[in-house]
Amino acid sequence: MMKWLWLSVLAVILDQLSKIWIASNMNLYQSMPVFPGFNITYVHNFGAAFSFLSEAGGWQRWFFALLAASISVGIVIWLKRLKPEETLSAISLGLILGGAIGNLIDRVIYGYVIDFFDVYYQVWHWPVFNIADSAITLGVALMLYESFMHKQQEG
């Protein structure tokens, strides 16, 4: 099911191009309103999801880079072992792989991940995220959907 790797490549390209555009056209912490509930806000995330370990002193950069690289290798092996009828699994894994590589590139090059999607309601803001994070989230959601649908078909 390696034919779905184009999704990974697409996710990485869209992610990296968007981050380059943001970093080239905005100042750090600058925020541009798009519509109520959504801003483009340029931030650096030195941690993982939800800025987990962002204040850890620097070691987390290489820890998360190594983790993402290891997971990426595991996903490629998993993709190779999928059966032809496991299309949704291949799509899910392709998106997760693309997201992991997109954020891995940032960690290795910059030491942080560039985030910019800022979703909020009144004064509550969801942690700022990017296209790579969105690809990972969509991939995981599709994987969960598939597992629930598979369980319903069995039961």
TrEMBL record:
Gene Ontology biological process: proteolysis
Keyword Hydrolase among UniProt keywords: yes
GO cellular component entries: plasma membrane
Pathway per the UniProt entry: Protein modification; lipoprotein biosynthesis (signal peptide cleavage)
InterPro entries in the record: Peptidase_A8
Listed GO MF terms: aspartic-type endopeptidase activity
TM spans (from-to): 62-79, 91-112, 124-145
Pfam family, one: Peptidase_A8
Record's keyword terms, sorted: Aspartyl protease, Cell membrane, Hydrolase, Membrane, Protease, Transmembrane, Transmembrane helix
Catalytic activity field: Release of signal peptides from bacterial membrane prolipoproteins. Hydrolyzes -Xaa-Yaa-Zaa-|-(S,diacylglyceryl)Cys-, in which Xaa is hydrophobic (preferably Leu), and Yaa (Ala or Ser) and Zaa (Gly or Ala) have small, neutral side chains
Upper lineage: Bacteria, Pseudomonadati, Pseudomonadota, Gammaproteobacteria, Methylococcales
Subcellular location: Cell membrane
Family: Belongs to the peptidase A8 family.
UniProt EC number: 3.4.23.36
Gene: lspA
Topological type in the membrane: Multi-pass membrane protein
Active site, renumbered: D115, D133
Protein name: Lipoprotein signal peptidase
Entry-linked PROSITE patterns: SPASE_II (PS00855)
Class of this enzyme: hydrolase
Record function comment: This protein specifically catalyzes the removal of signal peptides from prolipoproteins.
